[in-house]
Design goal:
This protein has 22 helices and 6 strands. With 451 residues, the chain is mainly α. The protein folds into 3 domains: 123 residues, MgtE N-terminal domain-like (MgtE N-terminal fold), CATH 1.25.60.10; 101 residues, CBS-domain (Roll), CATH 3.10.580; 171 residues, SLC41 divalent cation transporters, integral membrane domain (Tetracycline Repressor, domain 2, Orthogonal Bundle), CATH 1.10.357. It has a 3-stranded mixed beta sheet. The protein has a 3-stranded mixed beta sheet with strand order 4-5-6. A hairpin with a 5-residue loop joins strand 2 and strand 3. 34% of the residues are buried.
């Protein structure tokens, strides 16, 4: 969960590559020793796969766990395979419980057993608690290091307690106030704790309105709430409001980053953990499936064109103009689709306002259709001096942009309702719809007018 936002360090990568070329492995260690784990991960990700093993041996064992957390899953899995069981146990043992939980899926049963054996009873229970929740929920995101206090003690007692602890968990901006049953009843901001008279009771200065999350709350809902309320940390509770742990802003940044990467990569059928330097065969295999799906949709569009083969043979200009209708429809639909998918992800577009969004986007599509219908009609007349083709093209433009707007709203809503990520599946469906409708409308109208 500690994946930091990586900054590009091309000088480090260049120095490591230069050292590898001269087989100066000692210099590789010199470059890496003072780097942040996130920067080491950045260097490893930028290396050819065959060079990563040599560099990985130069990363200090006690830092390998943190570096593994920073790496994309595809690269992390490859490096884990290079490590023997004792090295893996040593690397993982340096991590916090929630970070260990992140790495567990990539480890063998033997390594997991050794890690559990090395943990004390309390840490094993904490790890089991985190692993009992799906990774994409509040329970899967949470840390189990929340600091709690009771409401009936005064500030001086709280400060003494914190001094005895010696160290606070990272991103601790507030303490959670709980009752004897560990139910959350409020929060005590550190800022208030440090600026309040020591005789004041916690109940007098605590905040009773606390943003908290049920353990099975989806991670995207958690990230939206952190963004909306500017949170740094928040408690996770069970169905009885008992404190289970806390979510911190660094975990939420990871979720937001992963969502952004998924939004960029998913429409192309790619994983957000795509390794740009992965072996050719592996990359080809992953991408071939998505290209095959797109080929099927292309054949569907071609079949529609084939219905009007005789018309195209008689009026060759139709073949020149028909990509315009499909292209404009695809672009208009993509605009609507992007807005709606974003709205669904942020909870702005819901069933309650879907009709309003649909009507608005339909009006935009029709107005744009009319605007560009006039434009393409005039251009067609000036270019080919064919009024009937111009009329067919103009009407098809209006029809296809209207359908594109409808599809851009309805497709992601329907796809989401059947349990599929709209960002993944909507694009290819939209392209098929706009191509089929565009070709059918243009060629159908042209056939009608010209006969």
């Amino acid at each position: 969960m500690a994946k930091a936002r990586r900054q590009k360090k091309p000088d480090y990568l260049k120095r490591v590559l230069a050292a590898l070329e001269t087989e100066d492995i000692a210099n590789v260690h010199t470059v890496l020793v003072d780097l942040h784990p996130a920067d080491i991960a950045n260097v490893l990700e930028g290396l050819p796969p065959e060079s990563r093993a040599a560099v990985w041996t130069q990363v200090d064992v006690e830092r390998r766990g943190e570096v593994l957390l920073e790496l994309p899953e595809t690269v992390r899995v490859d490096l884990v395979k290079l490590m023997d069981d004792p090295s893996l146990v040593a690397a993982v043992h340096t991590l916090d419980i929630d970070d260990i939980a992140d790495l567990i899926p990539d480890l063998s049963d033997e390594v997991i057993a050794e890690i559990l054996f090395a943990l004390d009873k309390q840490d094993r229970q904490r790890l089991d608690a985190v692993l009992s929740y799906p990774e994409d929920t509040a329970g899967g995101l949470m840390n189990v290091d929340a600091v709690t206090v009771r409401e009936n003690i005064n500030v001086e007692v709280v400060l003494r307690y914190l001094r005895r602890r010696g160290e606070l968990p990272e991103h601790t901006n507030q303490l959670f106030v709980v009752d004897r049953s560990d139910r959350v009843i409020g929060a005590l901001p550190i800022s208030k704790l440090l600026t309040t008279e020591t005789r004041a009771r916690v109940s007098q200065i605590m905040e009773r309105e606390v943003v908290k999350f049920a353990s099975l709350t989806a991670d995207k809902e958690v990230s939206a709430a952190f963004e909306r309320y500017n949170l740094i940390s928040a408690p996770v509770v069970d169905e009885s409001n008992r404190l289970l742990g806390r979510i911190t802003v660094d975990d939420v940044v990871d979720v937001i980053r992963e969502q952004a990467e998924r939004a960029v990569m998913a429409p192309a059928g790619l994983s957000e953990d795509e390794d740009i330097l992965a072996p050719v065969v592996r990359t080809t295999r992953k991408r071939a499936i998505w290209l095959g799906i797109n080929l099927v949709t292309a054949f569907i569009a071609s079949a529609v064109v084939g219905l009007f083969e005789q018309t195209i043979a008689k009026v060759a200009v139709l073949a020149v103009m028909m990509p315009i209708v499909a292209g404009m429809g695809g672009n208009a639909g993509t605009q609507t689709l992007t807005v709606v998918v974003r709205g669904l992800a942020l909870g702005i577009v819901t069933e309650a306002n879907a009709r309003v969004v649909l009507i608005k986007e339909l009006m935009v599509g029709m107005l744009n259709g009319l605007l560009w219908a006039v434009t393409v009609g005039i251009v067609t007349i000036l270019w080919h001096n064919n009024y009937l083709v111009a009329l067919a093209l103009a009407l098809a433009m209006v029809i296809n942009l209207a359908f594109a707007a409808l599809s851009g709203v309805l497709i992601p809503i329907i796809v989401r309702r059947v349990g599929v990520d709209p960002a993944v599946a909507s694009g290819v469906i939209l392209t098929t719809v706009t191509d089929v409708v565009g070709f059918f409308a243009f060629l159908g109208l042209a056939t009608l007018f010209l006969t």
